[in-house]
Amino acid sequence: MAEVNAQNKPAATPKLNEREIVAYLKAHPDFLSRHPDLLEVLEVKHRAGSAVSLIEKQVELLRARSQRVEDRMERLLEAARDNERRQDHVHQLARTLIRAPSLASVAAGLGKCMREDFGIEATLIGINSTNYKRHDIDGIVAIEPDGRIARALEDFFRTHLIECGPIDADRAALLFPKAEVRSAAIVPLEKEKRLGFVALGSTDPQRFAPRQGKMFLELTADLVAAAIRART
């Protein structure tokens, strides 16, 4: 009889591990919709120790997700506004340089736009001495082959690649004697023809960085080069 009872005894219900339960719920996302009564009895422990219903937890998660989406949208909108402002400032720079009646006006207009629109405190235009012989325009210097600037920027004139980043005190004083520049960008003018360079300096040591985007710098150099060519 004991043997018969053993044979007739119902099999034990197999235990499910958590991984299998999670997999099942993922495969059947409508499970709780079909069993709404579970939403009232399932509990999720709060960090403070109190228990909340699954519905409350879902609402909390949805609110957090919504806030993240809103934050991301705000960042995207702010980036779009920044790009629009920068585009307007570049257009203003182009108009200023195009309308400048002289080289002196080109240098003054460049400095004004950089200060007021881009927060860049110091500028300098260097022109190869074969194209520019004057020494009387503030903000423009003639680059002599063996001059101080040529020696200080030896690597730049050898490679004619954009230099961006912190600048040492000696070079800063040479290029920007009227400002305490901590970082700078030195950009070639007409790289192939070696017209010269435009230098932008900032008192902020983080304003220019070696790996920053170069498009704005190249565009500025193109505008300055075109303005110089039209007046020399």
Word description of this protein:
With 232 residues, this protein is an alpha+beta fold. It is 52% helix and 15% strand. The relative contact order is 0.09. It has ten helices and seven strands. It has helices at 2-8, 18-27, 31-34, 37-41, 54-99, 103-118, 148-152, 154-159, 169-175, 215-229, and strands at 43-45, 51-53, 122-128, 140-143, 163-166, 183-189, 196-202. The model has no long low-confidence stretch (mean pLDDT 86). Keywords: Coiled coil.
SSE ordering: HHHHEEHHEEHHEHEEH
* Basic shape: elongated
CATH architectural arrangement of the largest domain: 2-Layer Sandwich
Oligomer state equals single chain
Number of helices: 10
What would the CATH topology of the largest domain be? Answer: Beta-Lactamase
Which stretches of 5+ consecutive residues score pLDDT under 50?
none
Give the CATH superfamily of the largest domain.
Answer: GAF domain
Radius of gyration: 34 Å
- Amino- and carboxy-terminal Cα gap: 117 Å
Structural class: alpha+beta
Compute the number of structural domains.
2
Proportion of beta-strand residues:
15-25%
Order of strands, main sheet, comes to 4-3-7-6-5
> If you average the pLDDT, what whole number results?
86
CATH class of the largest domain: Alpha Beta
Based on DSSP secondary structure assignment, what is the total number of beta strands? 7
What percent of residues adopt helix (DSSP H or I)? 40-55%
Largest sheet, described in full?
5 strands, mixed
Protein name: DUF484 family protein
Keywords: Coiled coil
Coiled coil: 52-86
InterPro entries: DUF484 (IPR007435), GAF-like_dom_sf (IPR029016)
